[in-house]
Recover the amino acids of this structure.
């Protein structure tokens, strides 16, 4: 569930000027604010504009045809209080650095959504006293940047807090009512069954408040997933949960369902390649799903030097790729055609992983002795000792040793 965001996001304040300005009325400091179609906000990949070696948004637009970005993350101040900050440290009211990124995007005909929450940190739903004050804090963000879209990323530890989730869902409903046409997505953890207990409780809270966003999105990674087939299975299961919770038919549930993936190597050592993204994209479009996004553009580039998937990074994917390969799937979801050749050299082709054959697939019910070899997530693995139902992953204390891509 995007663990990298917590451990690599501590330097959000770098480059943010503290000018003490008050929140501005919508659009007054944001340049051109003409809204894009909802499909673009639904396709916007996540971008940390001040952390994890942020790439140039304008260059990504030129190379891929992308028009929308999901900027992350708005949190409560680390020192306490009910006012919006970037990453817990940089007040939105005095921000100029993120505003500059937004101005660049809008000057090129694009726009942004802003994501609140994420993994770790203190969320405004936890810090504010009720839904109205939570909404008032988020309204400052909408006003400052003239937003047409906002994302509620509800995950650990906040989504385990019933009162905080009630505040967030209540705030989302208030913002939806007070900002006609505002595109609202709600993103939460994914499991093989669709979403877990806390995700289901969040849906029940939305039902009890009579709140329906543009979509509820799940993140099918960091939970024992293995490529696109496991992700599309989770999306099918989540569709059933939406149907049973809200009384929707299948088509209505898909029209309110979204996918938020992770490109390359996930926090837990899963691998999601370009072909996996294409498979999920095909599923999303064929089922008329409302959203297709991923974490993150900061990671949408080849690691240097290539590491053959041995680590998870906040600044590269750990898979063989050209720069911005994964962003092009978002462009396709929005209904546009990415450029064939990125302007200005959007990234040099990189060699494919080693071509060795894959061993027999890992099976959770099989007992393996030391020296046994299996394949999992496009890698071969060797057992260090007897093991059963322990997912292969590259951790020093784990039972598996990574033998490389296959």
């Amino acid at each position: 569930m995007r663990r990298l965001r917590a451990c690599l996001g501590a330097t959000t304040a770098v480059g943010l000027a503290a000018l003490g300005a008050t929140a501005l009325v919508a659009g007054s400091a944001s340049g051109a604010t003409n809204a894009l179609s909802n499909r673009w906000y639904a396709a916007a990949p996540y971008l940390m504009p001040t952390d994890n070696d942020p790439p140039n948004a304008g260059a990504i637009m030129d190379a891929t045809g992308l028009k929308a970005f999901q900027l992350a993350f708005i949190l409560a101040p680390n020192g306490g209080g009910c006012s919006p900050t970037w990453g817990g440290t940089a007040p939105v009211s005095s921000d100029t650095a993120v505003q500059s990124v937004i101005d660049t995007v809008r000057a090129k005909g694009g726009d942004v959504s802003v994501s609140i929450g994420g993994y770790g940190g203190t969320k405004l739903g936890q810090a504010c006293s009720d839904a109205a004050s939570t909404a008032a804090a988020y309204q400052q963000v909408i006003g400052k940047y003239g937003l047409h879209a906002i994302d509620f990323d509800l995950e650990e530890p906040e989504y385990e807090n019933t009162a905080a989730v009630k505040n967030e869902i209540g705030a989302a409903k208030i913002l939806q009512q007070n900002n006609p046409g505002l595109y609202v997505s709600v993103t939460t953890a994914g499991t093989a069954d669709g979403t877990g207990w806390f995700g289901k409780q969040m849906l029940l809270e939305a039902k009890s408040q009579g709140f329906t966003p543009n979509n509820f999105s799940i993140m099918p990674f960091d939970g024992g997933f293995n490529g696109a087939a496991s992700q599309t299975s989770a999306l099918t299961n989540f569709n059933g949960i939406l149907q049973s919770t809200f009384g929707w038919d299948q088509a209505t549930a898909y029209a309110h369902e979204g996918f938020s993936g992770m490109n390359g190597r996930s926090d837990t050592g899963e691998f999601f390649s370009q072909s996996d993204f294409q498979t999920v994209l095909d599923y999303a479009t064929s089922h008329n799903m409302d959203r297709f996004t991923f974490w993150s553009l900061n990671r949408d580039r080849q690691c240097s030097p290539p590491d053959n998937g041995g680590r998870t990074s906040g600044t590269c994917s750990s898979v063989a790729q050209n720069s911005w390969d994964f962003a092009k799937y978002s462009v396709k979801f929005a209904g546009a055609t990415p450029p064939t050749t990125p302007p200005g050299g959007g990234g040099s082709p990189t060699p494919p992983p080693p071509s060795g054959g894959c061993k027999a697939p890992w099976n959770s019910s099989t007992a393996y002795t030391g020296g046994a070899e299996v394949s999992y997530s496009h890698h071969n693995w060797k057992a260090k000792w007897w093991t059963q139902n322990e997912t292969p992953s590259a951790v020093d204390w784990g039972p598996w040793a990574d033998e490389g891509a296959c």
Q: What stands out?
A: The radius of gyration is 21 Å. Residues 5-32, 342-355 have pLDDT under 50 and may be disordered. Residues 394 and 402 are 6 Å apart (CA to CA).
